[in-house]
Amino acid sequence: MRLLNDMALFVEVIKANSFRGAAEAVGLPNSTVSRRIAELERRIGLRLLNRTTRRIELTEGGRLYYERCRRIVDEARLAHEEISDLVDNPSGLIRLSIPIDFGVVYLAPLLAEFAERYPQIQFDLDLTPKRLDLIRDPVDLVIRIGALPDSQLIARPLGTLQRNLFASPSYLARYGVPSSPAELLQHQCLRMLDAPWILHAAEQKVSLPIQGRYLLNNIGMLRRLALLGQGIAMLVDEMIGEDLAQGRLQRVLPSWRAEALPVYAITETRLVPAKVRVLIDFLSEQFNSK
User: Fold this and answer.
1) 231-269: per-residue pLDDT in tens?
2) Is 157 a domain residue?
3) d(Cα 105, Cα 46) in Å, to the nearest integer?
4) Of 36, 46, 48, nearest to 5 (Cα)?
C-alpha cells in the first residue's frame, strides 16, 4: 500500500511540476513529499527526476515509470468511484476548458440543463481556445472544435456543427446578393483561416480562394463584423439563431453548404471519473439529437 501511495504522490509531483505544488495538492509538508520521492527512487533503484533549484524534469526512465504509474493510479481511483456509480449519483468538481464563443452561445444552455440533471456536480470553467497540456494543466475535460493535432490524448467525437454563409441586409443591399459560388470572389469575405472556402451542393463541390480585408481567430468578432456589414461570413447555424430570427443576418447561397466542423471531448486518459463520463455522454446525446 505504501508503494501505491508513493506512486500516486509521484504522479502528483509531475502534474504539479514541483514538490511544493504536489505538497499543497495532497496536504503534506514539502519536505515529506521530497523525502518520499527519494525513497521511491531508492526502492526501485532508478533516478526518476533531475532536480534543479527552479524545476524538475523526468529522466528517460522516469517518463516510462510515470506513464505506468498514471495508469495504475487512474485504475485505483476509478475503483473507488465505481462505488458511487452504484447509487447513480455522480458528484464533485469538473474542470472544463471550452472555446469562448462556443461556450457562451452554444454550451451554456446545455450545461444549465446538465446541472439540473446532476445537482451534485460543480464546474470550474476555463474559456479559452488555446491548446492545453493535460498533464500540467488542471483540467478534467477539454472541448475543442475542428481538426485536432496528433497527440497521445484521447479525443471522443461528440458531433458536428453545420456552417453556412451569412451576411447583413446592409451589406447585401450595398454590394449585391451573390447568385453562385464564383461570385463570392468579387465580395468581401470574412475569414477565420487563410485558406479556401469549400462548399457543397448535392454532388457538387467547389474550392474558392476567397479574399477579404479581415482575417480573424475569434468567432464572436467574425459574427460582429458580419452584423456591421463588413462582409460575408461562414458561421455556425446554431450560434446565430437569434440574429436570423431578428433579420440581422441573412443566408447567402442557401443551396450551398460549408463543411461541418467536428466537435471533440478530449481527456488525458480513457479512464475518466463518473462525473466526466456522464457529461461526455450527455453532450454526445445532445449533439446527436439535433
Assistant:
1) 999 999 888 989 999 999 999 999 999 988 899 999 988
2) no
3) 51
4) 36
